[in-house]
Amino acid sequence: MKRQGMDHGRVGTLVEAIRDDILYGVYRAGEWLKQIDLQERYEANRFEVREALVELRNRRLVEHKVNSGFRVAAPDPEELLHLKAVRTILETGAADPVVGLATAADLDDLERLAARFEQAIETADPPTRAELNFAFHRRLYDIAANPVLAGLIRDMRERGQSGTTGRWFTLAGLRLSAQEHHAMVAAIRARDAAALRQLIDRHINRR
């Protein structure tokens, strides 16, 4: 039964909009999400905002505190280590199919996205840089032609994003990430799955 005042299609769109803002750094780990502010920002009613926050809690991107409200989830250090370990298994496991299936068009797309991220380091705000970084990695793992694997990788990356530290807060770290993006594309172009696995491992686990 449809709840009065709530459009379920609109709720789905709202979930994705808030999720993107969390992933791209508009909202930071531990930040409280006031429903009235979300209603104004996303032009939604309170029923839609509440349903969207519940769905984001189910995805473990936000957490609910009784009598306090919702805030962006902040994974503890041990959980972040576990997430990185799972990401390493999944993402390095994608290296062989990515190298085996990548077309010239795929490589051109990756080169373009890597270049856009590199340029954004000097010219764009943090949310834009984060968005471009996600776009590069989504495109990379889509090449593996395994939507289950790509979905798991996306979920693990999203769960760990609010706890991102280290390189994302220095220009040197961002530039190193950009260099690694270009190196990944070069490894794929050379059909070198072993090199790609090493680069992915380093990219995930370097502090």
UniProtKB/TrEMBL annotation:
<dbReference type="InterPro" id="IPR011711">
    <property type="entry name" value="GntR_C"/>
</dbReference>
<dbReference type="InterPro" id="IPR036388">
    <property type="entry name" value="WH-like_DNA-bd_sf"/>
</dbReference>
<keyword id="KW-0804">Transcription</keyword>
<dbReference type="GO" id="GO:0003700">
    <property type="term" value="F:DNA-binding transcription factor activity"/>
</dbReference>
<dbReference type="Pfam" id="PF00392">
    <property type="entry name" value="GntR"/>
</dbReference>
<protein>
    <recommendedName>
        <fullName>HTH gntR-type domain-containing protein</fullName>
    </recommendedName>
</protein>
<dbReference type="InterPro" id="IPR000524">
    <property type="entry name" value="Tscrpt_reg_HTH_GntR"/>
</dbReference>
<dbReference type="Pfam" id="PF07729">
    <property type="entry name" value="FCD"/>
</dbReference>
<keyword id="KW-0805">Transcription regulation</keyword>
<dbReference type="InterPro" id="IPR008920">
    <property type="entry name" value="TF_FadR/GntR_C"/>
</dbReference>
<dbReference type="GO" id="GO:0003677">
    <property type="term" value="F:DNA binding"/>
</dbReference>
<feature type="domain" description="HTH gntR-type">
    <location>
        <begin position="8"/>
        <end position="75"/>
    </location>
</feature>
<keyword id="KW-0238">DNA-binding</keyword>
<dbReference type="InterPro" id="IPR036390">
    <property type="entry name" value="WH_DNA-bd_sf"/>
</dbReference>
